[in-house]
Amino acid sequence: MTPYSLLFNGVFRRMDPERAHELAFGAISWAGRVPVLRDVVQGALAPYLGRGHGGPGSTEVLGRTVPAPFGLAGGFDKNARAIRGLTMLGFGFVEIGTVTPRPQPGNPRPRMWRELDVRGVRNRMGFNNDGAAAAAGRLRELRATAAGRAVVVGANIGKNKTTPPEQAAEDYAACARELAPWADYLVVNVSSPNTPGLRDLQTTAELRPILTAARAAADEATTAAGERRVPLLVKIAPDLADADVDAVADLVTELGLDGVVAVNTTIGHDRGPGGLSGPPLLSRGLQVVSRLRERLGPAPVIIGVGGIAGADDVRAYLRAGADLTQGYTSFIYSGPMWPSRVNRALTRTRGSVAAGSIAGSAG
């Protein structure tokens, strides 16, 4: 049994899951702000992050050299407070959010539960975050240093709970406008089950104006700032029927978007309220990624997420057609060494990920 397993079983497991998250998150955030400590830990855990262009396992995706194929999914760092601490632990890239235009507290507690029998997590957080302006300010501060500019950061954006569906496009545009100058890519999240009516926006009729508005706002913001065009992706649910997955892929092609993040949490369970994440998602996540790749062709980027517990699961997503992968839930169960263990296995040699074509599959 590892030291972290003892800590999890003896301490964290006895705590409210959200309180445990806050304590762990605070420690990671603090360590990432201490330069000497951060550099020593990163050098020991994640030397691949310092290899630069062309290092084993690195790939050109979304206009950036991503040093390792496994990153952190949206939901852990909602407010861009711990990016340097998270890369210190070995994540190849970090996706912040979900960020909404205005701050909101999220749903009432309790809103997070461990599903120990499947090493999963069920949540109904409800996009609790500090708002787009606060997140943009922290990203701007990150980008003020060379080390901060080197980190690959995505921003996951959503609408406020109080915004009616017919005004959703305005919320996504507002977030895109704030965050595009500072993010390496944007993800339109219409697939969380925890904001009423949000998943209804995955239909192509509802999704088209949202994506169009977000694209236009991002372009306007980056042009004004003299920055490069920021890639725009859409995140979809595992609960979509295959025909609806195909329809989203066709819309991505029609609008010239940069790709898809697949998949979000599932409501296909009988464990209580909220979306379930963790190993139960792996099979459907792989199916959706494979279907998207077949439908989209080789160029658009696919980020595979859902059920990843180790390097073999990442390789399965890469073989299915993903360019990059993300995880979150197993971070809770496996501890702070987990991201570096996964990425070290993948970046040891290019051959270790050749089956997934990580070096050549990016659009």
From TrEMBL:
Pathway: Pyrimidine metabolism; UMP biosynthesis via de novo pathway; orotate from (S)-dihydroorotate (quinone route): step 1/1
Subcellular location: Cell membrane; Membrane
Residues given in the record as substrate binding sites: K78, N123, R124, M125, G126, F127, N189, N194, N264, T265
Keyword Transmembrane among UniProt keywords: no
Active site: S192
Cofactors named for this entry: FMN
Substrates-to-products reaction catalysed: (S)-dihydroorotate + a quinone = orotate + a quinol
Limits of the Dihydroorotate dehydrogenase catalytic domain: 59-347
Keywords: Cell membrane, Flavoprotein, FMN, Membrane, Oxidoreductase, Pyrimidine biosynthesis
UniProt topology in membrane: Peripheral membrane protein
Matching InterPro entries: Aldolase_TIM, DHO_dehydrogenase, Dihydroorotate_DH_2, Dihydroorotate_DH_cat, Dihydroorotate_DH_CS
The UniProt record lists the keyword Transport: no
EC number: 1.3.5.2
Cofactor details (free text): Binds 1 FMN per subunit.
Residues that coordinate or bind FMN: T98, N156, N189, K235, V263, G278, G307, Y328, T329
Subunit structure: Monomer.
Function: Catalyzes the conversion of dihydroorotate to orotate with quinone as electron acceptor.
Homology family: Belongs to the dihydroorotate dehydrogenase family. Type 2 subfamily.
Protein name per the record: Dihydroorotate dehydrogenase (quinone)
